[in-house]
Structures are given as C-alpha cells and as structure tokens.
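Consider the tokenized backbone below.
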C-alpha cells in the first residue's frame, strides 16, 4: 500500500495541484490536520475538493487550527479518522485530531486525558491488525516536536500510548519545523512538516515499512 501523507495545509491549494501526479499514484491520501487557515468548514471544503480532483481515497483528521466544524465535514464525507479505527487491506488505521494544549489557545485543543481516551477508542477497533498506523495531528512529546524556539510541542499521551501499544507508523504534523522521520521504540514517527511549503511524506507498507520525505515546487 502506498500512502501520500501531508499536514498543515493551512488553506493552500497550489501545492495540491502541483502534487497531482503523486496523489493519483497513491493508494490512499493521508491528511494529518490543520487543513485551514481561516479555521472554517467552508475553507476546508475547498481544500478537500481540490484533493478530490485527484483522489477520493482520503483518511484525515482535523488539526488544532481547525474548528470542530471541519471535523464535521470530514465525518460527513467518510474521511474522518478522529477517535476511529478502520481496517483497510489488513492494515489498521486509527486517528487523533486537534492537539494538546498550546500557549496560543488555538481552535481545537484537548486535554491529555481526552487525547488518551480518543486514542484508545480508535485503537480498540483495529488492535488485532498488523501493522497499525496512527494518523495524529500532534506528534508524541519529545519526538519530531521541537519548535523553532526549542520548545517541545508534542503530546505526553501520544508518547505514553506508543510506549505501550504496537503501532508501526505514526504520521503527524503540527510542528512545521520538526519535519522528519525518527524511530521511537517500535514506532516510526514521521512528521510531514508544512504542505503549505510543499513538504510531504511517502510511505509504502508491505513486507517492510518505508517512509521518505519529499517536497513539491509550486
């Protein structure tokens, strides 16, 4: 299975158009949150419609910058993975939208207790699958989450979950400058960075799991 994964789009549609061949070639498109700049459902609908020109095989979560109405749109379209699990070709996917609390008091933030519950709810639906992929807007605390100020912006609950459950791949975003791929215990944590700046991830899941970073020019 080939995945094309992005995060932190913030309303930009030009990089989607530039990535059209990559989107068409992927089995599934993963959108790991912060779809909008204006935070609204209307803008999210425009962004999602741009993706749908090239693929409707979409797995998505909302970000902390997106209002809950954005998740409502994703639910209606059947794309939302927030606190949900889905089995696709034997691979288990589950998701987490929003983020842990930030100093900016952004649109959709959850307490660490809420994050832990949302993770458990989605995971229980796919726990028997191998492998398992987490689509989370927020990275685990201490892994691909260092901001340009040197602060850690990840979630303690996501970190604790990955320490105890067999998750093979965590696709995330949130901290733009923390783009990259890093192994944390048994999980490959891949922060795609800002798709608004053209950054994306490709992942291939088969007998092995491979994730690579890329960038589109537009």
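A designed sequence for it:
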């Amino acid at each position: 299975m080939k995945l094309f994964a992005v995060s932190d789009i913030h309303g930009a549609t030009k990089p989607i158009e530039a990535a059209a061949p990559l989107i068409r070639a992927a089995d599934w498109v993963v959108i790991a949150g912060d779809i909008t700049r204006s935070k609204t459902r209307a803008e999210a609908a425009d962004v999602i419609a741009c993706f749908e020109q090239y693929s409707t095989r979409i797995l998505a979560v909302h970000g902390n910058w997106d209002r809950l109405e954005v998740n409502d749109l994703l639910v209606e379209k059947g794309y939302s993975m927030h606190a949900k699990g889905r089995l696709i070709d034997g691979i288990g996917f589950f998701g987490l939208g929003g983020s842990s609390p930030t100093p900016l008091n952004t649109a959709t933030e959850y307490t660490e207790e809420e994050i832990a519950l949302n993770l458990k709810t989605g995971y229980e639906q796919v726990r028997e699958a191998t492998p398992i992929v987490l689509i989370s807007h927020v990275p685990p605390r201490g892994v691909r989450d260092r901001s340009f100020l040197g602060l850690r912006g990840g979630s303690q609950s996501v970190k604790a979950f990955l320490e105890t459950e067999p998750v093979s791949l965590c696709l995330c975003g949130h901290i733009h400058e923390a783009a990259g791929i890093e192994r944390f215990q048994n999980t490959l944590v891949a922060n795609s960075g800002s798709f608004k700046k053209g950054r994306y991830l490709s992942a291939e899941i088969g007998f092995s799991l491979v994730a690579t970073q890329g960038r589109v020019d537009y």
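The domain at 2-215 is CATH 3.60.21.10 (Purple Acid Phosphatase; chain A, domain 2).
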